[in-house]
Every structure is written in structure tokens, then in C-alpha cells.
Amino acid sequence: MRHSDSLTPEELADFERNREGRLSSRQWLKLITEPLTTLLLLSLPLILIAGRYGAAGRILVLALVAGFALTVALRALRFARVKLRYRVLFAEPPQARWKLWRRTSLSTKTGEPLRFHHRLALKSKLKPDQALHVYYIEAGERRILLSLLPQKHAQADLAEPSDSFERAGGVVFAE
User: Is the pLDDT assigned to residue 175 strictly greater than 70?
Assistant: First the structure.
């Protein structure tokens, strides 16, 4: 998403749902399946070894699958009730590209930095001090960036919260 381009269909769907105070299907699926890749990679050796132990190994593999299903179910419940937050934030000066481990950081109008631990929004080039429409959630001690769009974008009106945003449990920060 660049400043003058139109939004992709995924971004449009994200903003359409976010402005109503809800997660889009794509965002919800990414959030609930996030730990599965790590869990599968960590348990793959155990699954391969368990295959040598016959019935006991199959029971162990079934227990792992049940654990994966429980993890997904609990995350689905957790993120089904999450409150979206809307805020106008400002881009900070860009970090060096080689600093891949750096978290996305934006700041409030007063200069208070907000760091995002995870990002579902598509990567975009941001100009320093550029005002952005930002939707995010707070899950425990983590902030997760859902979507963002510069205020001067041609389709910026699609990013503003609708009248039903707060009725759906969304939180609007007026600064």
C-alpha cells in the first residue's frame, strides 16, 4: 500500500470489518493459527519417534492433535471477544532495513511511542510524522497492529470508524 495506490481487496475487507469494530476473517484466522507453525515444528520429532511405538505412539500423536485443537479453540474464543482500538498515530523515522527484529513503532500526537509486538497490516512505506488511521488490539501485554492507512490517502474515508464501532465494543482514542 503506497500513498497514491488504491487498496487491495484484502485491505478493503480488513477496513470494512475493522471500522465496524470487528476483525476481518483473514485477521481472525491469522491470529488463531499463529502458534500452530511453531507447535508443529517443535512436535515433529516427537511425532516421528512416536510412530515406532505402535498403539502407544498413536495415542501420543492423538493427544498432540487434541492439544493443537484445544489451542486453536481457546485462541478463537479469546479473539472473538477482543475489543478493537482506533487511534490516529504518527509514523516515526524509518529504522534501518537490516534491523529485522525491530518492532513497529508509532507515536501519539503528544509523542508517546506505541510499540506493536505483531503486525497483520501489510507493509508500507511511511513518511516520518505522517498521520495514520490505525486499528489495533491489545491481547495481554501485546499490541497487535491490524490495519493502517495514511490520513491523506485517496481512500482514507474508508478507514474512519463507523457509527457502530463503539456499539460493537470498539475504543476510539480522541487526542
Answer: no
